[in-house]
Structures are given as structure tokens and as C-alpha cells.
């Protein structure tokens, strides 16, 4: 009886075992696990290819950019095949971490290209973390900035973990199918070499034989070396100063008795200066100032930065040195380099800084050479912030008039004054009010309430560019109106852009040139500038001179030395 029952059950057990697979799991579950495993492997492969092929600028990220065979993948697969078993896992782990660092570098490059119009410098650019946190805090609040920082840290850890897992998973798959992998590597290598030799392209301008990641790393090696040596290179440049020992009575004799106002207009670049709207405003402004007895001359300077880093441009113009990174800036402000401000101070001017953007201690002020610094806290503003800018430009100019330029019986003043209303995010933008209405800035509450909202403007790149242009128009109108209202025979106004804005506002590729203009009633002052071939008017034309911003100090001191 028992034998008969066993005989009857045996086929059933064998059938169930066959359906359940070798591990005793049902066949359906085993097939699901296999499908999931293959999908994960495929995703790991896609991630690796995506990282190797992704460009570092948004405009180059197109479907055609991925129609390539990356040599790094072919060489990496071949290397993992020939390595001994004990070395394979550590090498794969290092390759995964390197891949994670590569995509982080590419993301940073992309972000820097979109904001500062240049690639990320892995040696010198970490100082931008604090500047980025300050900007984020001013726009999103402290809690928002902390949340952003946490997201970034978690994201970096997740990327490194994900890329390492991907390479390890692909390595196991390659070894499990060693023969097929070896054949695939041989075919891929042969095809890559042939495509490289023939210059094969499936998409115009995109070679099939890709080695973008290798080129990216090779390009960075000399730049990293230069960045590592930059500190000593810049230290030598600081020591070369043609005006260090110039006697005080021989400095700036051509401006004796004048009030010299040096104004940086935030993000005022050559691109916006060429728009019909800004050119029409400048032409009308030239006529208006001519009617008030003023003439003007203009040219271009090439800024050391773009998209941000205004303080680098300020330091470059004032020191006569090319200051294009934070390390150079710190080196400069700890030196005894003669700045333009200090040259005026030594020559007998009262040197002041009107700094609406300074909201905390500013120890480097002592380096530049000011007798008085007016920071945001002591400009008496009682109105709302306009985006990043703590106060409107017209208010800043009105306070300068009240505190320094207007009082009778004063000594000649040299003032440095950044105007910030054209700083991103360009919403809301102030509007002009009557100079008698400016007061303590309370009038701007209504102006702010009626302005555009950031979240609305930034939905559309065209609106961003339009509002940016409007902000420049406001800043220029503030200056023109100030000269009309308060300009006198002693006033010499110099205004310039610090840098071009971020690419979203320029619409793409752009130079680093910024306009610079000098305004005065004195034909002798303008005659010295005319001798430098600057063009007439508030806006330079296409044929105007273009100087490196670092050359301005020496040329200016030379032009007005006699």
C-alpha cells in the first residue's frame, strides 16, 4: 500500500520540483527575479554610458551627444577581464568612485557654465560654497539654505554609492559571461579604432569614436597644475607696482579739486548694452546730459569674471592686477598694493565707500583705503529689499548726495559705490520716484508690492532676459537723473559694469566685455580720456577700445598724473 502510494506521488513531486526551479521557488518568482536582475544590470550600464557621454554644457546636451561609443567603457571592460580575481573588486570599486566624481565634476561644470560662463576649478572654486550659501540664504532664508545644503550632501553620497554599485554589478556580469564579453570588447575596440581613423559621424559634429571623459580629465591636468602654482605666480605680480613709490603730490594732478565718483553697475555687460532699448536710453541720456552742460566718453573693459564674483572685478579695476579667483583676492587684500582709492587718499581726497551690499563686517576695507565706509546698516534705509539688492539704486545715490556730495564746505571726495538693483534675480525691479520723495525708502513699499514676482519671471527665460534688461535701464536712468539733478562743475562720474550676467540673461555665448563711461563738464578731463581713443557718448560702439580691466588703474593714473 505504502509503495503504491509512493509510486503515485513521485511524478507529482518531480513535476512540482520542475516548476519551482533549483532553489525551490516557484518558476514565476524565479523568472521575475531574473528579469529584475537583468533590468538592474541594464540600468547600471545605461548609467555608466550616460556619465561618460554627458556634455558639460546644457546647449550641447542633445540626443546626438549620446550617439557615440566611449573608449573609456571599452578599455575599462577589457581591463576588468584581464585583472586577477583578487584585484578585480578593488579596481572596480575605485572605478565606480572615479565615475561618481566624474559626474559630480560634470554637474559642477554645467552649473558654472550656466552661472559664471566658465568651467569649475577643482582647486580654487571651493570658496564659492560660502558665497553660494549667502545667496541662497538671502533668497530662500536660513532654513531653506540649510535644506539645500543637506540635499546636496545626501545627493553626493548617493551618487558615489550608485556609481560604485553600478560598476561592481557590471563587473560580475562581465566575468560571468567572460567569453561573450571578450568577443564584444574585441569587436567594440576594432570598431572604435576604425571610426576614429575614418572620422565617422552619425550626427554632424559628433564623432562616433568618443573619448570626451578622457579629454575632460586631460584638459584639467594643466589647469590644476596652474591653479596649484597660482599663489606664487600672483605674489610675484603684486610686487611689481609702477606707482608704489610715486610722491603724493604727483598723483592725480589732472583731477585736483574734482569730486570723483566711481560706480559699478551690477551685471552691466556688453550684451545688454547692444540691445535697442538700452542704446536708445543711452542716446537720450547723452542728449539730456549735454543739455545740462555735461559730455561723456566710453569704452570697454574685459572683466576677469562673468555671472558673479563682483568683488573680483572691483579688486581687479582698483588694484591693476588680474584677480579672477578668491585665492588671489585674499592674497591681494593682505598685501600693501596701491589701490586707486588709496591713490586718491594719498593725493588729498576724502576717500569713501558707499556699500549697500555690505551687511556684515568687511575687514578688507582697510586694504582699499577709505576714510569712511557706509555699509547697509548705516544708510538709513526703511524700505523693502528688491530681490538680492538691499535697497534701490536711486536711494543709494540719494544717500551719497546727502552724506558726502551735498554738504557745503567739504573737501573733494572720491567715492566708490556699487549699484545693486540689476543683481539677479531681477524681480521685483524698483522704479524711479521724485528725488524729494525718496526719504528713508518707505516709499518703495508700494513700488515693491506692484512689481513682478520672482517665481513668475523665472518660469520663462525670455522674461528673465527682459527683466534683466529693465533692471539695467533703471540703474542707468538713476545715474543720468542724478547727474541732471545734482551734477556740478566739480563732478566727475565714472560708471562701468562689473561683469556680464549669467548666460540665461545673455542668451548664450558672450564676451566678458563691460562698458565704462566717464561724465564731466570739464573739457580738460574729457580731453585726457579722448586721447585714449574713448568714444563720445554714454555708450561705446562696436569700434570702441577694449582694455583688460586690470590695465585701467595704471592708464588712469598715467592719464591724470599731470
TrEMBL record:
<feature type="transmembrane region" description="Helical">
    <location>
        <begin position="64"/>
        <end position="84"/>
    </location>
</feature>
<feature type="transmembrane region" description="Helical">
    <location>
        <begin position="180"/>
        <end position="199"/>
    </location>
</feature>
<keyword id="KW-0472">Membrane</keyword>
<feature type="transmembrane region" description="Helical">
    <location>
        <begin position="143"/>
        <end position="168"/>
    </location>
</feature>
<dbReference type="InterPro" id="IPR000917">
    <property type="entry name" value="Sulfatase_N"/>
</dbReference>
<feature type="domain" description="Sulfatase N-terminal">
    <location>
        <begin position="297"/>
        <end position="502"/>
    </location>
</feature>
<feature type="compositionally biased region" description="Low complexity">
    <location>
        <begin position="15"/>
        <end position="26"/>
    </location>
</feature>
<feature type="transmembrane region" description="Helical">
    <location>
        <begin position="39"/>
        <end position="58"/>
    </location>
</feature>
<dbReference type="Pfam" id="PF00884">
    <property type="entry name" value="Sulfatase"/>
</dbReference>
<keyword id="KW-0812">Transmembrane</keyword>
<feature type="region of interest" description="Disordered">
    <location>
        <begin position="1"/>
        <end position="26"/>
    </location>
</feature>
<feature type="transmembrane region" description="Helical">
    <location>
        <begin position="91"/>
        <end position="112"/>
    </location>
</feature>
<protein>
    <recommendedName>
        <fullName>Sulfatase N-terminal domain-containing protein</fullName>
    </recommendedName>
</protein>
<keyword id="KW-1133">Transmembrane helix</keyword>
<dbReference type="InterPro" id="IPR017850">
    <property type="entry name" value="Alkaline_phosphatase_core_sf"/>
</dbReference>
